[in-house]
Amino acid sequence: MSERQLHLNAFIYPAGHHEAAWRHPDSRPDRIYDVTYYQEIGRTAEAATLDAVFFADGPALRTDVRYNAAPGLEPITLLTAIAAATSRLGLIATASTTYYEPYNLARLFSSLDHISGGRAGWNIVTTGTDLAAANFGLDRHPDHTERYARAREFVDAVVGLWNSWEDDAVVLDRAAGIYADPDKIHRIDFRGEYLRVRGPFNAARTPQGHPVLVQAGASNDGRAFAARYAEAIFTAHQRLEDAQTFYTDVKRRAREFGRDPGHVKILPGISPFIADTEAGAHRLQREFNELTVPEYGLGQLESLAGQSLRTLALDEPVPVELFADAGDVTDNAASRRQVIAGIVTRERPTLRGLLHRLAGARGHRVVAGTPEQVADTIEDWFRHGAADGFNVMPPYYPGGLEVFTDTVVPILRSRGLFRTEYTGTTLREHLGLPRPGSAAAN
Questions:
Q1: CATH number of the domain that 40 lies in?
Q2: Does 49 show up as a binding residue in the annotation?
Q3: pLDDT digits (tens, 9 = 90+) for 72-122
Q4: Radius of gyration of the chain from Cα atoms?
Q5: Which of 190, 300, 411, 426 sits a CA distance of 20 to 30 A from 442?
């Protein structure tokens, strides 16, 4: 087995990551509100010794439910149910620094970490959609710069709360009648421009010190934020060279913050269509693309592009100049526009073709091929400075994950790239991350 090992997460999107997955007979949209469905997916991921399952989330209805299934379950609650059905699998959920308060969020993830025995991870987002503001009584969605300024304060406050108990604060001395030593439990007295949190926290430190900090954002602010805080980073790239550039940049930034770059795991998304033959894999991908509803895909593309595309005919080439401003990665939407701009510039697709290119995983890398070819792509990116592992995004659930774990994972194991069994019990141990110190160590 090679010294450096891949990290693999199953990114759960209820019916699957292809936008037409819910229409395909191999998916189960009828079960997306059934907790046992997710527990079964969790057991599949754990049987393959994957690092974690991951749920995205947002506090607004962004999906056009006329044409697609809405993934509406709150992820931290759902992961607690998956925790009860598994014993080693990591559990990562998205939660917004814009629409939570630090103390509440700290309690939610601390509880998940305790309940699961140290398997929780928090995917930190600032929320990219202005649809959320009105759901929380706000007149406007904060702008990008303001959201990241609040996010920095938010993470500092949450981590401060988690660390406010020293590791040995719980004495549990029955004879003396002392449960905990108050001198080892500290107020944090956090005061920032946006947030004030007194503390201390109302629960002891968790098995892994505190949940793993995860981040998903490729903007300039997002990269700086990730380099400062994130222990794992989810990102989207179409080409090896773009992924290598991102990987090198974020590792460099982490080093500048005085961090060990090896403790920042970069995990691009990959959505694999897998069949016994390459031709069969492409047929499977076409099956899904033929089920797409152009109206839905156009709405998604307009959201990513930041402009109306209603004047374009489906079977005419997409003008390159529509994405002329995509080079300025000022926010996460701009970074995704940059991905789309690259596709348009290199491939000159028709609008229909572009919709099909994005239908598979919203701008993440889609691979159609045999298990060996999918494994080759993963190994190539892993060995050539583009990834520490991958967020696996099956086009359809549950079968897409099962095919990946049954066919691709054994190949990666045979090449010495992926574990054959868990060697630890916490998500930090799976990822090779150190346990953070408590208040006395900080």
A1: 3.20.20.30
A2: no
A3: 899 999 999 999 999 999 999 999 999 999 999 999 999 999 999 999 999
A4: 22
A5: 426
pLDDT tens digit sequence for 345-378: 888 999 999 899 888 877 789 999 999 999 999 9
Percent of the chain at pLDDT > 90 equals 74
What total of structural domains would you count in the chain? 1
Containing domain of residue 100, as a range? 7-282+364-431
Binding site annotation covers 33?
no
In a domain, residue 245? The reply is yes
Distances (CA, A) of 187 to 91, 100, 400, 402: 29, 21, 47, 47
Q: Confirm whether residue 350 is marked as ligand binding.
A: no
Residue 7 labeled ligand binder: no
Burial (Cβ within 10 Å: 0-12, 13-18, ≥19) of residue 310: exposed
Residue 332 lies in a domain: no
Cis amide leading into 398 (omega within 30)? yes
Residue 270's φ and ψ, nearest 5 degrees, are -140, 130
**CA quadruple 275, 279, 285, 287: dihedral positive or negative?**
negative
Give a yes or no: residue 412 inside a domain: yes
Q: Is 380 assigned to a binding site? A: no
